[in-house]
Amino acid sequence: MVSLSVERNLGLSIVLAEFVVMRHTVNILVADDSRATQQIVMNAVRVTRVPLSISATDNGRDCATLLRSGHVDLAFIDVQMPELSGPEVLWNVRQQGLKTFVTLMSTPPCDEAIEMARRLKAYEFLFKPFAVTEVQAILKTYCRIASPTKVLIVDDSSTVRRVVQKVIQRSVFNCEIAEAANGKDAINICRKERFEVAFLDYNMPGLGGLETMKTLLLIQPDLQIVMISAEDDVALGNQARDNGACAFLHKPFYPPDIDRVLHIAFGLRSPELAIEGGQPDFDVSIEGRTIRLMHKLTGHIFEYLWFRTTPYLRNCVIRPALACAVAPKDIVTAVEKAALLQLSAAQLIDGTAW
After folding, report:
1. Range(s) of the domain holding residue 289
2. To 5 degrees, how large is the angle CA 173–CA 174–CA 179?
3. Is 270 a member of any domain?
4. Which tens digit of pLDDT belongs to each residue from 170-228?
5. Low-confidence ranges of the chain (pLDDT < 70)
């Protein structure tokens, strides 16, 4: 077992622009019997300006001991290690109530390990070989999740506000929640206090959701607004996004849906290890040689010509939603994966070839 300290005397407020401010050292553990993999992860996180300390081990038993100490914030753990496997280590520490932010790593992909990772609340599953940028994206997400996120819920129903609050509290994000019973109250609250995200009901008596949103964005231009509604209406969602909402959610929604919209709101890479049970991310249609996908949360539309031979997806046309903070390029990987899955399910391409 080796330990490498990478503490930096940067104070409390100096970080790269893409990272939130960290007020404490981030303790990172890399557990892999491959020195090359250890070095890739270490190099990836060391180039950031987040204050951090890195430890590394090459076996599962030492990994479990380090995790049980309670001092590890973020861990990258290989599935196959001597003495204890990655899933066994994770099961062991979860049984003790530890909620360490964990990414499992493996090559080749292992369906059983992926399913176990979901059950044990791992954040992500990296397939080797992976890129430095993938590791940095996970560190960026951890920094955002570890910092408090100030959230405002605006809905005229106290029951709905209570339900939405419970759903948000089950998200992976650390949310500090305030409530407003109507648009005017929300505006008054936002004149006194800053928030990062607002979940805003579309249909409210008096000042409606759209009018409230426009005023809130004048008061706090950086506020990310998620419009919510009991109406499952594509046109309504597009209208909300065109007027400044970062996403649209149809009630009822669930913790995975909150995780997805907050990743979008903060410009974070969504994990491949998606927790099952939430709403599908895309509306997909296949018309002749064209496959069209609309991303439900942002409203971006992607069209491809599909072919039976590689590359299966060609001639991409993007129709971006207006006034959306998330660029289409930020979700294009997820779009193409969804398109390939749909084409494979329809037996239009060979699902074993990609």
Report:
1. 282-345
2. 105
3. no
4. 998 999 999 999 999 999 999 999 999 999 999 999 999 999 999 999 999 999 999 99
5. 1-23, 109-110, 274-280, 323-326, 351-354
User: Facing residues of 292 across strands?
Assistant: 285, 303
In angstroms, the CA 225 to CA 248 distance is 9
CA distance 227 to 236: 10
**The domain spanning residue 88 has which CATH number?**
3.40.50.2300
204 and 121 co-located in one domain: no
Single-letter code of the amino acid located at 150: K
Q: 147: burial class by Cβ within 10 Å (0-12, 13-18, 19+)?
A: middle
Tokens of 247: 């996403």
Torsion of Cα atoms, 118 then 281 then 162 then 241, to 10°: 150
Q: What angle do CA 124, 132, 141 make, to 5 degrees?
A: 45
Helices in 28-157 by DSSP H: which ranges? 35-46, 60-68, 86-95, 111-119, 132-146
